[in-house]
């Protein structure tokens, strides 16, 4: 019994999630599921993943890419809000332009080239 009480005391803090700090664009419910989506959409998994936009203290705004990401998240939300309501359908995402690259493509591929 003492073992279980000790384990509960030790493991309880691990299960308790702190509320995210410094959220300016996302809600606490949105941020966790979306972070991995952003890593994939920008293709930064091999470039440090979260560290592409964040520094060690995830609430810090030290990395300017974090502010750029906020502006782009706002842009995507605004674009999707302008479409007629069709339930929870999303029309535009980060992947729409980035296609797995940190810099979005600004021109279509040359004729005969495969689409990304």
Could you describe the 3D structure shown?
- The chain has 116 residues and is mainly alpha-helical.
- It has a domain at 27-98.
- The protein is 45% helix and 0% strand.
- The chain is built from 4 helices and no strands.
- It has helices at residues 2-15, 28-42, 64-81, 94-98.
- The longest helix has 18 residues, at 64-81.
- The termini are far apart.
- The model is unreliable at 3-16 (pLDDT under 50).
Search tags:
116 residues; mainly alpha; 4 helices; globular
Proportion of residues in β-strands? under 5%
- Mean of the pLDDT scores? 82
Please provide the count of β strands: 0
Terminal residue distance: 58 Å
The profile of the biggest β sheet is:
none
The structure class reads mainly alpha
| Unreliable residue stretches | 3-16
Give Rg in angstroms: 19 Å
How would you concisely characterize the structure shown here?
This protein has helices spanning 2-15, 28-42, 64-81, 94-98. It is an all-alpha fold and 116 residues long.
